[in-house]
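Anyone opening a protein record will find just a pair of labelled lines. A complete record is shown below as an example:
=====
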Amino acid sequence: MSVNQAFLAVTAALTAAVTGVYLTPSASAAPPPGSTVPSAGSSVPPTGPTVPPTGSTTPSTTAGIAPATSAAAPATPMATPATAAAAPAASTAPPTTKPANRLYSYDKTLVPLGASVKVELKSTGDSLWTRLDVSGLAPGHAYGAHVHIAECGADPKAAGPHFQHHPDPAATPTTPSADPAYANPTNEIWLDFTTDAKGAASVNNTHAWSFATNHWPRSLVLHAETTKTGPGVAGTAGARVGCLTLNDGH
């Protein structure tokens, strides 16, 4: 198995649910920091990552939004001596790959509390298959969705520009590619969708290329509008309303 194929196997299924404090100015109705609600069908607990079982190729992770004010908080909850002594051995916990991914919401209307996102990436030879499943979003809304080059953060800009198979040489960190020759659904991964009456949708596509070693996307970003294709605006899709960091398994 090549490095590229190994990466895709590890990242075959990434799931996250919006379950924490909104990263928007309005956070008065948010639950207490640290609360999580796993996505439907997930058996992974909200804490305590362990090594995945032998032969597993499609591990999944669940996550909640981190509080915007939690930067100084410890990485894991602090336990008293009594609770620490009573904690079960790590080997008894269900398998997972890494600490929970975070699904950031930048718009509480378009990515409400309880929304969920699942991304799948699969590769065979020189082809790439991508699937996006969402639920709990705004009903009947048309979203843009693309994979980006950097991990998500409290700032919607943290994910950087779109991932491109062949990067636009004219693009800069401050001026992302908007040239249709590069910013297009063949050279980038676009997963635009319109939700149904329950806020759910599924979309998939294929590409005649696969990720090169050390060149793969780090996040999936949801946008408020569908993706434009004209000169100077190609690849743009309005405000960033949500972001899921893609775990590369390393």
